[in-house]
Amino acid sequence: MKKRIMVVDDSRIMELQIRKLLEGTDYEVAAYCENGEDAIARYDEVQPDVVTMDIIMPGIDGLETAQVLMYEHDEARIIMISSLGDDEMLQEVYGIGAQGVLFKPLTREALLGALKKALG
After folding, report:
1. Which of 3, 53, 70, 75 has minimal Cβ neighbours within 10 Å of its Cβ?
2. Helix (H) or strand (E) segment spanning residue 21
3. Has this prediction a pTM greater than 0.90?
């Protein structure tokens, strides 16, 4: 049975890219949410194995959304995705308990490695 991924990103292009990178793997995109509010509302319904979370989004940003999901769901596994990589942001990502961080543009190897680590 494939592992279920919830993609949270305000860019539909990123969701399509992740779907393409996961083709032929043991992972599938089970849901796409374009903002943090949607991700929080749909988490119980989707029950993803891993969430990929954009950091910069309108409304509730990815860091706050991740904090809410991990507070409400002990089992939540979250990989943050960003185009920015400064030290302060990295400290915040790991400080909230995210399982990893990936930088755009994504590669198949990096994505699969992060998913494996998050589930390990």
Report:
1. 75
2. helix 12-22
3. yes
